[in-house]
Every structure is written in structure tokens, then in C-alpha cells.
């Protein structure tokens, strides 16, 4: 019982680690490149993103703890539900370096579409295990839907420049 708080904190903080690293590594690309992209009128303000991701990562991290706890830790029953969660988290963390770092809009779109599938799979696998954990993931799914639509629009409205052919 004494260690349970450490597990709770660890699972809750884990998503923030990759999110923070993604921001830290790509922070200079945001004003230099992202601000110049054509974006739809409904694109959220840059100021909203840190707050939104703090709430979303905290909710999903705590939800993963609930699933882990309900399944008795790293048991064979936890492989699929936590495996899906880990896979979607990895794609979530991969998106900023692909989008901002590599400036590869097409790969960022592919990443977010795969992320959507894994996040939906995660929520579906969690439904029978813990309803609270499932509910904690719903804001994340909503945000991902908006992020996916935004990525599609940015990809469509900002054609990637082809390198000039050397003769």
C-alpha cells in the first residue's frame, strides 16, 4: 500500500515526459516555421496547447494506472490493453519531431491517423476493465479528432516544396 502512491505518480507523470521532450526539442521551430503555415480559422491559439496537453496527459496517465492496477500489474491480462496504450503514446510522442522537427506534414498525418486507431483501440480494450479509465480518455479522443482534422487541413493547405532538380 505504501508504494501505491509511487505507481500512481509514475503512471500519471509518464506521458508528460515525452510531451515535454517533444516540446523542448522542437520549441524553436514553432515561431520559426509553424507560425508561417496556413492554418484554418478554427486552429486553437498556441497558448492553449500547453494547458490542454497537461490536462490530457494527466488524465491518460492516471487512467493507465487504473488499468494497470485493476489487471494486477504487468500480468498477461495487461499485455494488450497496456500494449495498445504504450503504442499510441509512442506515436503521440513521435508526432512533434515529425511535424515540427522534420517538417514532414505527410508523415505527421500518417502518424496521427495511426495514433487515432491505436487510441480508439486502447479505449475499447479498457471499457470492460475500468469505466473511469475509459471516461478519462474521452477528452483525449476529442482532442485527437481536432488534431487530426487540423493536421489534414495544414497538410492540404501547405503543399510541401519539392527540392529543385540540379542539372
Automatic annotation (TrEMBL):
Keyword annotations from UniProtKB, A to Z: Membrane, Transmembrane, Transmembrane helix
| Main localisation | membrane
**Record carries keyword Protein transport:** no
Q: Which residues cross the membrane?
A: 6-26, 47-66, 78-95, 107-129, 135-155
Identify the CDD domains for this entry.
TSPO_MBR
Cellular localization per UniProt: Membrane
Q: How does it sit in the membrane?
A: Multi-pass membrane protein
Q: Which GO terms describe its cellular component?
A: mitochondrial outer membrane
Family assignment? Answer: Belongs to the TspO/BZRP family.
Name this polypeptide is given: TSPO protein
Organism field = Chloroceryle aenea (American pygmy kingfisher)
